[in-house]
Input
Amino acid sequence: MLKTGNGEIVVIHRPKENADYQDYVPCRYCFGYFVKQSIWKHNCQFAPKTSEGVIVPRIKKGSVELMSNSSGESSKTGFSGLINGMRKDLEGQVAVKDALILQLGQKMCMKFGGDRQQFNYIRSKMRQVARLLCCLRRTSGQGSASMSNFIEPTQFSAVVEAARQCAGLSEDGKYQAPTSVLKSGNVIRKLAEIKQGSALERSDPATAELCTQFVKLCDLNWASEVSAVARRNLTDSKRTGVMVMPLTEDVVKLNQYLVAAANRLAIDADRTSDSFLSLTQVTLAKVILFNRKRQGEVSKLTVEDYSNKMKADAEHEMTQSLSDFERGLLKVLERVEIRGKRGRTVPVLFSAEMERWIDVLLAHRSKYIPAANPFLFANVTEFSYFRGSDVLRTFAMLCGATKPHTLTSTKLRKHIASTVQVVSLQENELDSLAKFLGHDLRVHSEFYRLPSDVIEIARISKIFLAAEKGKLGEYAGKKLSDITVAPNEEVETSCDESDDVEEAGSLQQMMADSKSASDDEVEVGGANAIQITENSSTVSEDQVGVTDSVTVITGRKSRKYGNRKKWTESEMEKVAMYFASDIMNRRLPGKAAIEVFLSESGIERKWTNVKDFIRNRFLFQ
Output
């Protein structure tokens, strides 16, 4: 009946008026026809039941695939299922009735080998073309024209104008959706190539030549007339936009909330479906947060992939170069390899507590999840999973974070990539981190390592400070971390901590204090004295650096400063590692925190020296 388009469908509840057969779907268990919007009310006696004899809640009963009348290549690639899942609005109806748009969908299905995970992406492309076709029909007045009618050289200007309208081009030359124009250019070329291939198959050289000319027009004019403005709009928005990174406190709050919620839900996971599904979502969010992975990669993790998890060989000869702590991690963390972006194989790490939660999910999975669902973080339908973006958004609001909108998988990835800049990883270590995150070193440096004002001020500024003093040539062959100029050094004081130490803790503050009184003077080494007056209120840091001690004489009291103690690479690295969070948040740590650090690290310095070092090296402007 569906093939011929004639006949009647016997439904469970007959409508009072004539209805569209596409509004009805059959139950996959009893095969009765119900309205799509109401089939959730259907209490099917043939649906799967739990061990207690209760129907599995929230299970999907409607099956649009049973109404498919497709066969051959379309059924092999699952194209019929893709079409049946299309939303039945104006754009969806246009997409499923236009021959060229259907060909585009079939080609993409064959390209992905019928992978159902790509169906939403293919539908979005088909709907994008349908949106463009609707606009073309309005502007041209041809209400019944097909997309193929506009893939001609004479219609190129109309296609350009329609693409601009779909992207929301304003009078001041700005697009509301600049990426829409860029995507339209690619898909229009693809449509022309499909039409050309069909023309060549049926020996129609005239149509094929028209398609060739249309593609040539796209190559010649699309970039200058459409794409250039869109790319400039994107560049301007990125430059003027404010990238807000997640706060470390918010990340900690989210992690603590997830751990507490998972431990609570694991107890009741076998009793109610709500607890089971909530535990699934909490575990998914925790895995994304721990690994800083793209949410789509972790969401599509399958049970088969997880079953292949393994620990690293702790007895391998390469482990001899690791520390005891690192060798201990090899025995604790499990590793799973999954498919990442562009077909890359990326690892996912699981801690012992995450494994415990997943073991609970697997133990009670058969009660709530259909056996045909392959995903580890599965929903109750046959081929569905929880989306990591939705899960993170929900728990970011529930955990009480200060800025919940920043706790997304993309921002979390950029957060970790930006934070490690303080650690000064070597190139091979950065390459390992980039591969774990699922990209290469170039992408990591260009897109993920954001230009941090902390790094620019603390390290790049040293080049200009050295150049200003004419000493840049002295640092030839050195790394940025090896260059030490006066603003990054601190003066170790010999006076009591309670006696205004912070006022004279750094060379800059000494100079500011001396400038406050016109009759103050600074004696350098006792022999070469430099008088500071109103006309000469600064001291050359080169002059100060040639002496062993500095004495500041003021009208109120005299302070003597001892010898400078240069910071070693090891000390600087320990400070940067321990106070990375404070440095990234442009916050100076307090006395208590610094004293705890000194006791743990074994560095023999006063807490004021550490505070001055952090201020001068990382926060000095």
User: Anything to note?
Assistant: Confidence is low (pLDDT under 50) at residues 68-76, 487-558. The beta strands are 24-26, 33-35, 334-339, 345-350, 521-524, 528-531, 550-553, 558-561. The domain at 248-447 is CATH 1.10.443 (hpI Integrase; Chain A). Residues 205-240 form the longest helix (36 residues).
